[in-house]
Amino acid sequence: FLLLLLFPLVFFSQTYPFREGFEGLPSTQVPQGWGGTMKVLLDHGLNDSKGLAARVSSAVTVDSAITPLIGPLTSASSFSFYYRIIDQNIYPSTPTDLDVGDQIEIMISTDSTNYHLIELIDMNNHTPSFNFVKKKIIIPQYADSAVYFKILCQYGNGSSFYADFDTIVVADDVQLSVEDISIENDIVYGVGAGSFLVQAGDEYTGCMDFAVTPDQLRDELEALLSIGTVFVEERIRFDNATRYRDLHVFFEGLSSNI
Are 58 and 155 in contact (CB under 8 A)? Predict the structure, then answer.
């Protein structure tokens, strides 16, 4: 007799675009189809919903998550997510002030073995907050490739902490809304006609003719909207190992990439 044992098989093929908000996934488990040890936890996402959480301390110094295979990407692809870092003690009472060695690495791989760093969050660029912050990384160099993304959270010193993530999206880069400019950016600089530049902390680029507040820029863009279509794109780029966050505005057939 030939005995056939039938087991349910789950296949995870590459997909694009990709979006995961974790709401439909079981709590306290690694997301199905993902690698690593980070788990879905209730109250660790946006609006106290479910999120993907890393838990690191002097006892457990590394926690990570690896996405399923995603792609093929395009020349306009971006990787975006919301994150926050909160002390483990009486969670979520205290935003974490990162110490030496505390960091989050965002990495990408085409073969699931060799990963390359595309974003680093550490004590030099992280601002402690209860609120989630959105990060977006433009990755045109991986066009036509299917890739894996790894989130690697490391403990160095100081307080044990959770690193919470939500709404992970890999898709063609979408334009920023006018409201996003006002909410997310502190100072916006205007450079000539048809182009604007965002200053993010001490990082900026381009020649500045005059400075305007985010609300003033929003008013300017709303005026332009009455004339024609306005597209706003945020892009992250590297120049001589310096990371820049640029804002590009296109309208009425004109464009300027600052």
Answer: yes
- Quick: pLDDT tens for 15-24: 899 999 999 8
Please tell me the distance from the alpha carbon of residue 102 to that of residue 221, in angstroms, as a whole number.
Answer: 39
Residues 6+ apart with CB under 8 A from 192: 209, 256
Amino acid occupying residue 40: V
Strands 116-122 and 35-36, bridge-based pairing: unpaired
Q: Long-range pairs for 237-244 at CB < 8 Å and ≥24 separation? A: 237/138, 239/205, 242/203, 243/203, 244/203, 244/204, 244/205
Report the alpha-carbon angle 135-236-120, nearest 5: 55
**pLDDT, tens digit, for every residue of 181-199?**
432 333 333 333 334 443 3
DSSP output for 225-238: HTTS-EEEEEEEEE
Sign for the pseudo-dihedral over CA of 236, 35, 23, 76:
positive
Q: Cα–Cα distance between 230 and 224 in angstroms, integer?
A: 7
Question: How many CA atoms does the CB half-sphere of 172 hold within 13 Å?
Answer: 5
How far is residue 168's CA from residue 38's CA, in Å, rounded to a whole number? 14
Contact 148/79 with Cβ under 8 angstroms?
Answer: no
CA angle 197, 219, 136 (to 5 degrees): 40
Claim: this prediction has a pTM higher than 0.85: no
**CB half-sphere exposure, 201, CA atoms < 13 A:** 9
The mean pLDDT value for 45-64 works out to: 95
